Amino acid sequence: MTPSILEKIKSIVGTKNYSDSIEDKICYSYDGTPILNTKPEAIVFPENEEQISQLMHLANQEKFAIVPRGAGTGLSGGSVPTENSIVLVMTKWKNIIEIDEANLTALVEPGVITAQLQKEVEKRNLFYPPDPGSMNVCTIGGNVAENAGGLRGLKYGVTKNYLLGLEMVLPNGELLKTGGKNMKDVAGYNLRDFIVGSEGTLGVFTKILLKLVPKPTDSVTMLAYFDKLIDSAKAVSDIVANRITPCMIEFLDNTTINCVEEYTKIGLPINSEAILLIEVDGRGSSVKEDAETVLNILKKNNASNVQSTSDEAESIILKTARRSAFSALARRRPTTILEDITVPRSELAIMIEKVQEASKKYDVMIGNFGHAGDGNLHPTCLTDERDNNEINKAHLAIDFIFNEAIKLGGTITGEHGIGLAKKNYLEQVAGIPGIEFMKKIKAAIDPNNILNPDKIFSMKPRCEGSLPNKQNQIGEFTHSHNH
Amino acid sequence: MTPSILEKIKSIVGTKNYSDSIEDKICYSYDGTPILNTKPEAIVFPENEEQISQLMHLANQEKFAIVPRGAGTGLSGGSVPTENSIVLVMTKWKNIIEIDEANLTALVEPGVITAQLQKEVEKRNLFYPPDPGSMNVCTIGGNVAENAGGLRGLKYGVTKNYLLGLEMVLPNGELLKTGGKNMKDVAGYNLRDFIVGSEGTLGVFTKILLKLVPKPTDSVTMLAYFDKLIDSAKAVSDIVANRITPCMIEFLDNTTINCVEEYTKIGLPINSEAILLIEVDGRGSSVKEDAETVLNILKKNNASNVQSTSDEAESIILKTARRSAFSALARRRPTTILEDITVPRSELAIMIEKVQEASKKYDVMIGNFGHAGDGNLHPTCLTDERDNNEINKAHLAIDFIFNEAIKLGGTITGEHGIGLAKKNYLEQVAGIPGIEFMKKIKAAIDPNNILNPDKIFSMKPRCEGSLPNKQNQIGEFTHSHNH
Fold this sequence. Notes:
- By secondary structure, chain A is of the alpha+beta class.
- Among the domains of chain A are: 100-214, Uridine Diphospho-n-acetylenolpyruvylglucosamine Reductase, domain 3; 218-407, FAD-linked oxidase, cap domain/gating helix (Vanillyl-alcohol Oxidase, Chain A, domain 3), CATH 3.40.462.40.
- The first copy, chain A, contains 15 helices and 20 strands.
- The first copy, chain A, has helices at residues 3-13, 22-27, 49-62, 114-122, 140-146, 153-156, 191-195, 229-241, 254-264, 286-300, 312-323, 325-330, 348-362, 388-407, 426-445; strands spanning 18-19, 42-44, 65-69, 85-89, 96-100, 105-108, 126-127, 163-169, 175-179, 204-211, 213-214, 218-226, 248-253, 274-282, 303-309, 335-338, 365-367, 369-371, 376-377, 380-383.
- In chain A, the strands form 5 sheets. Chain A has a 6-stranded antiparallel β-sheet, sandwiched between helices.
- The first copy, chain A, is globular, with a radius of gyration of 23 Å.
- The relative contact order of chain A is 0.11.
- At the A-B interface, strand 5, strand 9, helix 7, strand 11 and helix 8 of A face strand 5, strand 9, helix 7, strand 11 and helix 8 of B.
């Protein structure tokens, strides 16, 4: 990128909103993903839609890339710069523009921090449920780009379920508005739901309209220890079979329990094979009824200890183990690789065993925890990227885990996105026709491939040496019927 | 279309799966939409994915159109044939392939009738909530194509909220598989949610994987009469303000009440300005608590009579008025034009008044009913398409209603789709950048425009005489901020 192009960029956003210092380049060269980093050519903080639009025009003209960024907490490299790119930071766009209590909507700018929005709406007895682990730091824009989930996803769903409308600047510089305050709208293609989870490759959000729900008035939080992991998995199945939908069912394995206890010293049972954190919530007396049923199921499945509370402050304490899992694991070794596989719920117990198998087979320390209720686990490799032998073993273990998840009908990412980190596995999950469909859309919307290029998939053609496999590699739902 | 092309089509599907008789052409020339009809060149009933794929190849080669069709109950012309087209009927694909109780999923073929699936899963204490008015006839494939809703949408959402996976034959003949039994999956673009509501323009479904939920064990159904319409609208707002989410809040106006009473003779109050049908459901005692709160709200808002039941058989009787609204209205005049506008919930009372205004202003009989809880109304014009004067007035009334809905931040279709019937209004709701985005995708996926062409939007360029309006015609969420 020539100095004259950088000058043009600077003149679009203004000097105070531009940096190409080496310190800033280093800071913005990485996100929350271990190992991956590339320095951008510059970092910009646009002030309005017009500036973003002009940057898109310039990028198309001069063929550089634009990498959008919120708080940079992503875990798959989605905001890691690419070669010849500028980082476009949206964190200053942090107004909560409107909370509409009659229509149960919140209109926000993309830089609003998730937890900040949650606090604001809870003052009004409303609720914005998606609670990713980084919620005290991450931004709504990033949440929409990645379709972020969280602990409450089991009952309340994920970001996609709360997105009502978007305004965004497209790669061609136009401002697209889609959706609105209507609870239902089928006018034209469902652009809004398509753009959720598109990982910054189709546009830069400038306004986000979210749905809110009534705040639950009652909840019961339970923490259960299990000597045997298989009992905890059976407890999860039994809860689902009883047709109860808890707000959350979270799981921690023995490695994670030990790391958390080292960190927090809250008296966790370091010999238990598993801990389950369960919360039921809602309004009225059925909450207590459901909690009673869950407690019986936990005891029936040999829970060695169950703590239970309907007090909010105590509930926060019970959740500490789970909420500090990642931080606790990250203390152990210099490099923490957090993965995000999801399997059909029925395969959860098998997947947990496969993670243990990977750990033994490749001699890698792996703490496993996550959203047991919806089959989404976070096997976390604790390693050291500076040691080639270690990091190779970690990658082999992760590869094994991914392949086992896919064999079970699962996916390589439930919440964190493909980004850069998981591109190699996308074909096994999405299939060639699926990826071709995605590439056609990307090519149509961003013909010069200037917006967050090479994230999710590469637009470059395959190397001649590896012919595309025309057979459908991905698992069928079932065999064909004739009619 | 030449005889030789028709021969090729016949040889792909086999003689028993092919017809070009005049009787069949007439039968398949229309769907549930009044007025619109075009005879196809032929009607085919493909037996498997391979035949559909071959038809796509032939269509691309010989440049004819393929119009997919389920039960043909659509209300916007989505399965009305276009010029030089064949109708591809999927009603024979009616197997429920698998109900997975561990993962709460149902795998079905697209021709399965919605109510049939519901009965099957309810035997297992499970629930597939989307309940479009045509559910005893319509097919799951059609539901997915239109993102069908229903009475239970207020609490349970619509078809999109239940779609986990799809297999479909693309316009290029390839078989795409997307999604699966995972509760969460962010691997690549969200194709599945994009294809919901794409009205048969992007592919032909061959398998559909749906999410199920636990069946509610308790419910209370209430029917309330209101002398004054404004009181019923206030009751709806108060219920929402009390943070209760009923399963449904349905509304009938005086015209509809009278038509239904004529038809059913069940003793409805023909002088009431409005009836509300409300159901609360769930598990446990909070259902009764919520019902109590709702009853108090209804009385506080001057409901002249409230019937209430928790018995299933009685509940069906209370729902009769609402479930027979469309059929009752359709008896009155030769032509029944059912519209589907949605406005933000806060604008409901105003919109109801605007419909009344349209009826008076254009001297058209309009029965209004619908999903008051989510702002989705079905103003229904009763007219006679054979009388030019009448039908012109009806179209003027509908145009007025659409424009008023859009002014209130609403949309022209909450459930029925754009199809052919509402293409002229799409730009006002989706905006030019939005429609351009959609067209780019359609062009990328179906470059020869062979699959259900001219539905939702036209791929033909605008006439020279009317220049595109570059300004954003659609309402802003709000004004820009500088940062």
